[in-house]
Design brief:
By secondary structure, the protein is an all-alpha fold. The radius of gyration is 20 Å and the shape is globular. It starts with a helix and ends in an 8-residue tail after the last helix. It has helices at about 1-10, 15-20, 25-55, 60-70, 70-80, 85-115, 125-150, 155-185, 190-195, 200-205, 210-220, 225-255, 260-285, 290-315, 325-345, 350-370, and strands at about 120, 350. It is about 80% helix and about 0% strand. It has one domain (about 1-370). Strands 1-2 form a two-stranded antiparallel sheet. α1 (about 1-10) crosses α3, α2 (about 15-20) packs antiparallel against α3 (about 25-55) and α3 runs antiparallel to α12 (about 225-255).
């Protein structure tokens, strides 16, 4: 209930951001207002997706959740890509992976561990996620390695390599959906069963058998309403993303921030805020399986789906988007994956492990803050 009130309250920043743009209140004001406006819209997109998923059933609902899980980040990135801010887009991909693995998972383990001495989750799911993340790191590492170890490689060749790798990653992403929703769905039964807890549907989740029918009948008639809400929120996110990206360079300059820090830290926090809140909330309810699924699953989706889609979109838009990342970004992703996999491998978590993840995120954030401006990104 508190989350809904906050989301409704933050909607005031939608007209404020639009007014700031047309009345020329300054790029910094537009940037801040648009960023705050995206927060509740991302939350409503998540809520609408979950409500529709309840109506459609586990299979279609799972696919819908997978498709719209990172829609906000994808929309922001597409707008930035269309504006030619390719390096900012790459930085946001890096930041989303790091943020979910270290910040979101760290907060969940810390706060959940303070309330419960120790929490458990299925280690087999953690191992599958770890293997998939390892593949993602290898996939984004190789184009960069090819570029740095080859003399005279041209941009079109690197672009073609990235497109080929992107197609492989999307294929693997499809296989992970098939694995988790069909052939090995029983491994995710806990997360699927508790997944309703992230939406208002779970608030009506029956504690006694007689309330079950009432809960189902309450939500199924609202399909058209929630579809309209999802489409409306998506449209508004696109508009606010346009305002955000348009003011990005001028605002970050006024704030004294580099484009690298903005792309890695600020934009992912804005796009992922709703998922951050969901992961922490369910961890506080001792549902660490679901919290891990939200945090790590979002990172996987960024690496295996969003990044490849952006590569293909850049190809279509005529923007040279490839998987040739800055080496420092790759180091940050590799470190994040390594420590997250190490901590989650035993299927148990506590507050100290959460603190370690947050400390790693803080150190990386400081490194990105003090990192000198990279050509084309600052």
């Amino acid at each position: 209930m508190v989350k809904k009130i906050i989301l409704i309250g933050f909607l005031i920043f939608i007209p404020i951001s639009i007014a700031a743009h047309f009345l020329e209140w300054g790029k910094l004001m537009v940037f801040i207002a648009a960023g705050l406006a995206i927060l509740p819209l991302a939350g409503w997109m998540g809520t609408a997706t979950e409500e529709i998923a309840v109506v459609l059933g586990p299979s279609w609902g799972g696919l819908l959740n997978a498709t719209f899980g990172n829609a906000t980040e994808l929309i922001i990135a597409l707008v930035a890509l269309n504006e030619g801010l390719v390096n900012v887009v790459k930085a946001s991909i890096t930041g989303s992976i790091i943020g979910n693995l270290l910040l979101v998972l760290g907060l969940s383990m810390l706060l959940g561990g303070l309330k419960y001495k120790e929490q458990s989750f299925q280690p087999v799911v953690a191992r599958v996620n770890a293997s998939s993340m390892n593949l993602a790191v290898i996939a984004i590492l190789l184009p960069t390695a090819v570029n740095y170890t080859s003399y005279g490689i041209d941009q079109p060749t690197l672009q073609r390599l990235s497109v080929a790798v992107a197609i492989v990653l999307i294929f693997v992403y499809g296989l992970t959906l098939l694995f988790s929703m069909k052939t090995h769905a029983y491994l995710c039964d806990v997360g699927m069963a508790e997944g309703e807890g992230t939406s208002s549907a779970s608030e009506a989740k029956p504690e006694k058998g007689g309330a079950k029918a009432d809960s189902e009948s309450e939500h199924k008639p609202n399909l058209k309403l929630w579809v309209a809400a999802l489409l409306g929120a998506t449209l508004l996110v696109a508009i606010e993303s346009e305002l955000l990206v348009d003011a990005l360079e001028a605002a970050t300059e006024q704030l004294g921030l580099t484009g690298l820090f903005t792309g890695v830290i600020l934009l992912p926090v804005i796009g992922n805020a709703a998922e951050h809140a969901t992961a922490v909330t369910v961890a506080l309810k001792d549902k660490m399986d679901l919290s891990l699924s939200v945090a790590v699953g979002s990172s996987l989706q960024i690496a295996l789906f969003v990044a490849p889609v952006l590569v293909l979109a850049g190809w279509v838009l005529g923007q040279p988007m490839d998987l040739d990342f800055h080496p420092f970004e790759l180091v940050a992703v590799a470190v994040s994956v390594l420590i997250a996999n190490s901590i989650s491998s035993d299927g148990r978590s506590n507050w100290l492990e959460g603190t370690l993840l947050l400390a790693a995120y803080t150190v990386l954030g400081l490194a990105f803050y003090f990192h000198p401006v990279i050509e084309g990104i600052g």
